[in-house]
Specification:
Elements: E1 9-21, E2 27-39, E3 43-47, H1 54-61, E4 69-74, E5 77-78, E6 86-89, H2 101-110, H3 116-129, H4 145-157, E7 163-167, H5 175-190, E8 198-203, H6 206-212, E9 215-220, E10 225-231, H7 243-257, H8 271-275, H9 287-298, E11 305-307, H10 308-314, H11 319-331, E12 335-338, E13 341-344, H12 346-352, H13 356-370, H14 372-383, E14 388-390, H15 391-399, H16 404-421, E15 425-427, E16 432-434
Parallel strand pairs: 3-8, 3-9, 6-7, 7-8
Antiparallel strand pairs: 1-2, 1-4, 4-5, 9-10, 11-13, 12-13, 14-16, 15-16
Helix pairs in contact: 2-3, 2-4, 3-4, 12-13, 13-16, 15-16
The protein binds adenosine-5'-diphosphate (ADP) and magnesium ion (MG).
Length: 445
């Protein structure tokens, strides 16, 4: 489908911001400075990491939540609440278990006061179109996941919306089922059989976005904003094995992994100073996962360097699972990410080749050097005569700079790491960090 610059503009978003109140009356800015125009005739993909605000943006467009700042215009009118002509498909199918397929689909029409005989006709059309003919009287529990999501789609399509919003519509499905449904949907779109004028789809699968979309918007995180925009010009049906397609996917990987590594001065161990540098949110990340990844990278066929898309594919991992591992290894200086590749550093290779004791030692040094929060907790424990410190203070410090959930996760990740490295320990009952007699001495060098 050619993107015609003269096509009618359906949706326009200007300088949109969305923030939420946090516990302590400060604000968490989720979306900032989002600008976006959607025209008739295009499928646009929103790509971004988990937590970058994609669902929030979709909810704003669907009129389910207002932006905190900025303007959303739908067909030249200011959007205020759910608009006629916009329908949404959710990731979880959101079907009513006590209603048949047909009744679930007709629900989409109920709000529109459609005459009864027409409702039946429209719902039958939508059900047939999406490949559910014959299942009108079935109940959701009698259907497979893929068929349930087809019902979700039919319910959105039955109103013939101008804009179809889809929030990771295939991510709850297994790979093959998702592929079938995606292919069917693209075919219907290309053959102009879908009763919609434009589609906005949120996904965290780069391949999916490149397979489906005419244009891609790539979100960056914290706060979420559109960092890149790309046109996809491959004709349909698209072939994911095509070298040009692969190259394009690689390019997006590069755009999405390009992050400034967080650098701190390892010689500066002044506590008050380091506390201001402590606010790096850490993902859930076990030692097993990190070491497993390093061992995989070290072994054949990668021998220290792997193409991220290839690695993701061969490990059957999503970008959302793979990138946090790569970024954590990068933060700890065990790997680098560049040009869509992940590369083990010399230190990373040394760790892989070492016995457990040496591994722990390498890991400990990296934590002290690269994670200021760990460094300052340890310094405080060293200073105190009872070698104990409450976690509360550190949690509060973190919460000033990230969501309470992220703070909790960061502390929990840190606890796993320092236990492995035998740097210090955490007592769940008293919620205190403490130094054990066995914990390692840190050599000052
Ligand atoms: P994505 O869909 O890209 O994964 P979301 O839009 O779901 O991201 O969430 C973005 C951020 O906004 C997350 O940090 C999330 O915790 C936060 N968030 C979303 N909804 C709310 C809410 N109702 N209240 C507070 N924070 C929220
Ligand atoms: Mg989401």
């Amino acid at each position: 489908m050619k993107l015609n610059e003269n096509q009618e503009t359906l949706l326009q978003i200007k300088n949109c911001q969305k923030s939420y109140k946090k516990d302590n009356s400060s604000e968490l800015v989720v979306l900032d400075n989002v600008n976006l125009t959607l025209k008739k005739g295009e499928i646009v993909g929103l790509l971004g990491r988990s937590g970058s605000g994609k669902s929030t943006l979709l909810r704003i467009i669907a009129g389910l939540t207002p932006p905190s700042k900025g303007k959303v215009t739908w067909k030249n009118q200011l959007l205020s609440g759910p608009a006629k002509g916009i329908a949404m498909v959710f990731q979880s199918f959101a079907l009513f278990p006590w209603l048949t397929v047909q009744d679930n689909v007709q629900l989409g029409l109920e709000a529109k006061n459609t005459p009864h005989d027409q409702m039946e006709k429209l719902s039958e059309e939508a059900i047939d179109l999406i490949g559910l003919g014959g299942y009108e009287k079935a109940y959701p529990k009698e259907l497979s996941g893929g068929m349930r999501q087809r019902v979700g789609l039919a319910r959105a399509l039955v109103v013939h919306p101008d804009l179809l919003l889809m929030d990771e519509p295939f991510s709850a499905l297994d790979v093959l089922t998702a592929e079938n449904l995606r292919t069917d949907l693209i075919e219907l779109w290309v053959e102009k059989k879908l009763p919609v004028k434009s589609i906005l789809i949120v996904t965290h699968s780069i391949e999916e976005a490149v397979l489906m979309c005419d244009r891609l918007l790539i979100f960056s995180t914290n706060p979420g904003t559109i960092a890149h925009e790309l046109k996809v010009t491959f004709p349909h049906p698209r072939n994911r094995e095509d070298p040009a397609f692969r190259q394009f996917v690689d390019r997006i990987y590069i755009l999405m992994t390009h992050r400034n590594p967080i650098k701190v001065d390892p010689n500066n161990i002044d506590i008050e100073q380091t506390l201001t540098n402590n606010y790096v949110a850490l993902p859930k990340m076990s030692m097993n996962l990190m070491i497993g990844m390093m061992e995989t990278l070290y072994a054949e066929p990668y021998c220290g360097r792997a193409d991220l898309p290839q690695l993701a594919k061969s490990l059957q991992m999503e970008l959302d699972d793979l990138l946090p591992i790569g970024e954590t290894l990068q933060l700890l200086e065990f790997a680098d990410m560049a040009e869509g590749d992940i590369i083990l550093t010399e230190l990373g290779k040394k760790l892989v080749n070492s016995e457990l004791d040496v591994r722990k030692d390498i890991f400990m040094k990296s934590l002290i050097k690269n994670i200021p929060l760990i460094r300052s907790i340890r310094s405080i424990l060293d200073e105190r005569t009872n070698h104990r410190a409450s976690a509360e203070r550190f949690r509060d410090e973190l919460t000033d700079n990230m969501s309470p959930n992220a703070a909790r996760q960061t502390l929990s990740t840190i606890i796993g790491w320092v236990r492995y490295a035998e740097l210090f320990d955490f007592d769940e009952e008293s919620e205190q960090f403490f130094l054990d007699e066995d914990d390692k001495k840190i050599e000052k060098d």
